[in-house]
Design goal:
This protein is of the alpha+beta class. It has seven helices and six strands; from the N terminus they run H-E-H-E-H-H-E-E-H-E-E-H-H. Helix content is 54%, strand content 14%. The strands form two sheets. It has a four-stranded mixed beta sheet, sandwiched between helices. It has a two-stranded antiparallel ribbon with strand order 5-6. The longest helix is centred in the last third of the chain and has 21 residues. The radius of gyration is 15 Å and the shape is globular.
Amino acid sequence: MAARFEYTQAEEIRDTFARHGVRYLFIGDTGAVLLGFPDAGAAAEVFLELTEADGAAAVEALRDLGFALTDEQAAEIQRGKDFVQLKNGPFDLDLIFAPDGIETFDDAWKRHVEVEGFPVCHPDDIIASKAATGRVKDRESLPRLKAFRDYWVTQKR
């Protein structure tokens, strides 16, 4: 069984990506957890802006975090492959350049929320992305996530 996502991983990502100028958003279960949702996923999940400069900066940041990237993985990240799953570092990390259910990074960025210095996708984007994947585990979590979103909106606004 894979290790569960931990808050300290988000701190490491935030701090290292900031030093390298990587533009990103926490998404999926990671984003939901940072918003206060209690269901943690196994891997940290980040949505990266799809630019050549950001891809190159992300590769350097990931190496700085301790990921032993292969040349192939580095090339996939630099070109913005839709989904890159990393298991060769201090924790599991999913890099997402084209999440299902979200048109563009800029659209998600306009709606994002800051939580303790963490850039996080808005709950509506997390829900849209999970709904669009069609995976059973995502469909099963949608009712709980929607209820959480409704609670979150009343508490935060």
